[in-house]
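Hi support team,

I submitted a single chain yesterday and got back a structure, but I'm not sure I'm reading the token output correctly. Could someone confirm the output below corresponds to the sequence I sent? I've pasted both exactly as they appear in my results page.

Thanks,
R.
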Amino acid sequence: MTGYAQARAQTEEVALTVTLKAVNHRFFDPRWQVPAELEGAQAELEKRLRAVVRRGHVEVRIGCERGGARAAAGVDAELVEAYLRAHAELSQRLDLREPPSVGELLRFPGVLVARASGPLPESAAAALDAAFAQALEQLQAMRRHEGAALAQDLLARLERLQAAGRHIAAHRQELEAALLERLRRRLAELLPTSAPAPERLLQEAALLAERGDVSEELTRLDAHLAQFRTLLAQGGEVGKRLDFLTQELHREVNTLLSKTSSAAPTGLRIAELGLELKAEIEKIREQVQNLE
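Hi R., thanks for writing in. Yes, this is the structure output for that exact sequence:
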């Protein structure tokens, strides 16, 4: 699930800003941008992050500002070199001769930076803890809101699956009659001069009906949908289990379609419903990837 949060905590000596940005990902994948003087706290912060975010790509940026005599001006030398290379390339292309002055270079965005000197004050640890806790809470609130919206969307799609399954079940008698008629025509083609014995016809019809019986698939489909709803109601870390259930739904629909494809014209109607089922299941699969 996605989310964005930013929190700031400040003392007389230091100000800490924590920014969290989460996007969808199958696994827990944190990326950190932490000042060198705060790298020692990263391991503990990652434990706290993992406790509330189980799936997702999370960018964590921590900014540190120090006031008073501890602050010092610095220059981003690599950025200056990049500006000079770009200037040289443009000068050659436009036949310019004047290089930029030092004053002009210092006015370029990002060249002049504030750098701290010396160790962080003791108050930095408390400020970092407060800012990180506040950012985590904001992130979770946004993710919970998105999760509730996703759950409602999934429940609506489950209802459409249930309705399509009921329509297929309503065609079962037509399906059995179509299979019997197909068998009658097939036997007439094989035995054009003599009618098949009724007993033989019924025996073959029973075998054919058994192979075309979709009641098991419909029953399992209903069971998977019920379990899907139960997991959504429970909440928590359910994304992977719902992903597995989605695969099972897809498998049942494929089996159902394979059993009814030869029973025209009823099979064509069931095929249409089956394609609707598969389209909804694919949308469910995409949404489930967004859930934790």
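A quick pointer for reading it: Residues 77-110 form one domain. Let us know if anything else looks off.

Best,
Support desk
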